[in-house]
C-alpha cells in the first residue's frame, strides 16, 4: 500500500496531533472535527488519507476510480490474498467462494437451528445468577460459536475463538506509522502472528480431512466449490480469508448485540417497547449498528488514476481509509446522531460498507444479532444495566463495548 503525505496548513495543524490512543479510546471527537473541517484529509498517525463523511465514503467505495486495498497493518496481519484487499479475478473468485453459503435463501435454511440453541445454552449458564457481563458471557460467545460452527470449527472452544479475534483485532489495528512510513510499533503484530500459527495448527488437520471427504462446513465448501473435479483451492490461498472471518465476521455480530443493548439501556422507554414487541428487534439492531459500527474504520480503497474528491486532488495510488463509523454519525444525514433512537427514519447506514466490497455476511450477521436478542430478552425481560460502572467502548478499526455488566431480579 502506497502512502501519501500533504503539507498540513496552519488551520489544520491539529490533525498532526491526533494519536492512536485517542482514536482507540474515543474516535468521535477527532472525527467530528474532521467531518466539519477536513472531511478528506491526510492523517499522519495513520499514514493515509481518511474519509469521514457519509457522502465521501460512499462515493469512494462505489467509484470505478478506486479499488480495494488492505491497510498496511491489515496486510501484515492477514497476508495475501485477503478477500477485503484484492480486486479483479481474485476478488471474484473469493467472493464466489464465500457467498453461496451466505445467500438469504441458504441462510434462512439453517440460521435459526444454528444460532438459537447456542444463545439458549449461554443464557441458561447465567440466568439464575441475577447478574452477568453480557459482552463476555453472551454476545461475544454467541457470535464466535455460531460462526465457528458454521466454518466447521466445533472442536475449537469459544474462549479460544474469542482470544483469536482479540489478537487479530489488536494486530490489524496496530496502524500507527512513523514519518518514514514504517510501523511505529512492530512488536504489536506478534500476538497476531501467534494467533495465525494456532489457527493453522487447528485448521490444517481439518483441511486434510475435507480435501478427501467434503463436508457441510463453510471451509470445506471454500476448498471445493467452483473447482474442477479432483481439484481444491490451495489452503494458503484461503487462509487469509479465514483470518478475515475469524476477526471481522466473528466480532461484528457480538459487538453489534452489545452496542444495541447499550443503546437501548440509554433509552428506557425504547427498551420497554422492544421487550414488549420483539418484532422491533431488527430495527433496534439496525440503529445499534449505525450508532456504534462494529467495523468502524477498518477498510480502505486506493485510487487507480489521479482523481479529485471533495476538492482534494489525489494522485494515482493514493490510499484512503473509509471511516464508516464516522459516516454513520454524519449530521448531514442523521439528526442528533450521537443519540440511539429506534424511531429515527430508517435511512441506510454504512456499518456493512458499500460497493462491491460490502460485507458478504450482512444477512447472516443481522440474523445472528436478531436471534440472540430475541432469546435474551424473552428469557430475561427485566434486564437492567449495572450503573455502578460506566460502559467503556474501545477501538478505532473495530469498535464495541469492552464489557456490559447487567442485573435482573431472579
Automatic annotation (TrEMBL):
PROSITE patterns the record matches: CYTOCHROME_P450
Pfam hit, one: p450
This protein's name: Cytochrome P450
InterPro entries in the record: Cyt_P450, Cyt_P450_B, Cyt_P450_CS, Cyt_P450_sf
Organism encoding this protein: Klenkia marina
Any one Gene Ontology molecular-function term assigned to this protein's record: monooxygenase activity
SUPFAM superfamilies (UniProt xref): Cytochrome P450
Upper lineage: Bacteria, Bacillati, Actinomycetota, Actinomycetes, Geodermatophilales
Annotated family: Belongs to the cytochrome P450 family.
Annotated keywords: Heme, Iron, Metal-binding, Monooxygenase, Oxidoreductase
